[in-house]
Amino acid sequence: MAIKNLLSVDALNISFFKNKVEKEIIKNISYKILKNEIVAVVGESGSGKSISSLALMGLLPKQISKITSGSILFEDKDLVHLSQKEFQAIRGKEIAMIFQEPMSSLNPSMRCGQQVEEILKQHFKLSNSEIKDEILNLFEKVKLPNPSRIYKAYPHEISGGQKQRVMIAMAIACKPKLLIADEPTTALDVTVQKEILELLKDLQTETKMSVLFISHDLSLVSELADRVIVMYQGKIVEQGTTKTIFNAPEHNYTKALIAARPSTDFRLKQLPTISDFMKDSLNTAVISDADRKMNHKKLYTQQPLLEIIDVKKTYLSKTGWFSKDLTFNAVDGVSFKVYPGETIGLVGESGCGKSTLGNAILQLDKATSGKILYKGRDLSNLSRTEMQTLRKDIQIIFQDPFASLNPRLTVGNAILEPMKVHNIGTFTSDRKEKVIDILKKVGLDASAFDRYPHEFSGGQRQRVGIARTIALEPQLIVCDESVSALDISVQAQVLNLLNNLKSQFGFTYIFISHDLAVVKYMADQLLVMNKGKIEEIGDADQIYAAPKKAYTKKLIHAIPKGL
Question: What residues are paired with 227 via a beta bridge?
Answer without folding.
Answer: 39, 241
